[in-house]
Design goal:
Mean pLDDT: 79
Structural class: mainly alpha
CATH topology of the largest domain: Rna Polymerase Sigma Factor, Chain: A
Helix content: over 70%
Number of domains: 2
Largest sheet: none
Number of helices: 10
Strand content: under 5%
Shape: globular
CATH superfamily of the largest domain: RNA polymerase sigma factor, region 2, helix turn helix motif
Low-confidence stretches: 91-108, 176-185, 191-196
Length: 196
């Protein structure tokens, strides 16, 4: 069933249709929140809040954009609000507790954990908008026009933010002996950073 069909049903009060949309996008929204706030527990809460907001406002969605784009916009706004409040109230963030994305594979070893931490450290150097652009482009596969719909601004601005983000990541990962290894935690980005 297409998103448009599920949305139309959800707008008429069909809760199972909305639940299907949640199942379809929960991993993407959670991954986006993880990349934005760099905290797995907070990301779970933010993903739930994003879906709650989507449920509340689904009748206002006019389907001028894709549902996925609209949902990502809600999730990004939830993350921005969380980050703004964390800065305002000075909530500390322990880098030992950060996880970008929960990995269910049991064969993850110490090397993989170290690689993820190196990438997380570099990822923290990005601005909030750059983190969002990288996540939407690399993990969600959105093009620059779609990213501009999610974040506001132009497709050109999204491209600039993306290029700047890659430059920053390259700068912070390059001093390491093998920055390609660190990027295995984010394989789609590894190819882009290594090529440049």
């Amino acid at each position: 069933m297409t998103d448009a069909h599920l949305v139309a049903r959800a707008q008429k009060g069909d809760v199972p249709a909305f639940e299907e949309l949640v199942r379809k996008y929960q991993r993407d929204v959670y991954g986006l929140a993880c990349r934005m706030v760099l905290d797995a527990e907070e990301a779970r809460d933010l993903a739930q809040q994003a879906f709650l907001q989507a449920f509340i406002y689904i009748r206002d969605f006019r389907q001028q954009a894709q549902f996925r784009t609209w949902l990502f916009r809600i999730a990004i706004n939830q993350c921005y609000n969380f980050l703004k409040n964390r800065k305002k109230f000075g909530e500390p963030m322990d880098s030992q507790d950060m996880h970008l994305v929960a990995d269910d594979s049991p064969e993850h070893g110490l090397l993989e954990e170290e690689n993820r931490r190196r990438l997380q450290t570099a990822f923290q150097k990005l601005s909030e908008k750059q983190r969002a652009v990288v996540t939407l482009k690399v993990e969600q596969g959105l093009n620059y026009e779609e990213i501009s719909q999610v974040l506001g601004g132009s497709a050109g601005a999204a491209r600039v933010n993306y290029c700047q983000a890659l430059k920053t990541l390259r700068k912070h990962l390059k001093p390491e002996d093998n920055h390609d290894v660190a990027l295995r935690a984010y394989p789609a980005m590894a190819a882009r950073v290594s090529r440049r």
